[in-house]
Amino acid sequence: MKVSLFATCLVDMFQSNVGKATVELLERLGCEIDFPESQVCCGQPSYNSGYVKESKEAMKLMMETFKDAEYVVSPSGSCAYMFKEYPHIFAGDPVWEPKAKQLADKTYELTQFIVEVLKVEDVGARFEGTATYHTSCHMTRLLGVKEPPMILLKNVKGLKFTELPGKEKCCGFGGTFSVKMAQISEQMVDEKVQHVEETGAEYLIGADAGCLMNIGGRIERKGKPIKVMHIAEILNSR
Questions:
Q1: Count of other CB atoms within 10 angstroms of residue 27
Q2: What's the half-sphere exposure (Cβ side, CA atoms, 13 Å) at 79?
Q3: φ/ψ of residue 203, rounded to 5
Q4: How far apart are the C-alpha atoms of 232 and 212, rounded to whole Å?
Q5: Residue 26: which pLDDT band, with cuts at 50, 70 and 90?
Q6: Beta strand pairing status for 107-109 and 71-74?
Q7: Cβ neighbours for 183, distance < 8 A, ≥ 6 positions apart
Q8: Of the given ranges (19-28, 43-52, 62-71), which has the lowest mean pLDDT?
Q9: What pLDDT digit, counting tens, does each position of 152-180 carry?
Q10: How far is it, in rounded angstroms, from Cα 11 to Cα 210?
Q11: pLDDT at 36 over 90
């Protein structure tokens, strides 16, 4: 099965280890991976800030970049969801709406692809430790991916999993929200960190780089002994 990796900006610039883990994991599951180098930002931050016209140029480039892909897989529920929004954004455009729908239909978040397309529930991972999982807003509420991460994590040998209190609450990142509403965002992430502490977990796992950077940054500033890891890294552990 041929898979084109949509790495996302944050993984490309700040968390290359997540991109590497994603590639290694998918290759181990029998996929042939390619990385189209012309990929850029999906346009979400600028689009959500109201720069619709400017954002469309990046979106068009992304549609052209992945036009020949069999499947597009991303280690980010938020960015994968943005591709799903393209058909709405280009609705009525005779040239770009069909291309937007084509890209949306073949795009998957990593755990969603593994469970729903590859039909794999146990990737053979082993990771010793106690962990909890942060359910990011875009991935669960908008993309609708809830069960795949849980299914895969519960089959990781050696991993002791504990439920995160208030898991349905936003961590305060929200892209540009954390910049524009910094004080409110700070209170939200403090509450999230408190809930993580309550679980007694050694590791906080998530599937969106933005959320993990936000929560991880606050954990580091507070000097808490909790390590933050992307789910791709956990699933790629042997």
A1: 12
A2: 26
A3: -130, 140
A4: 13
A5: very high
A6: parallel
A7: none
A8: 43-52
A9: 999 999 999 999 999 999 999 987 888 88
A10: 9
A11: yes
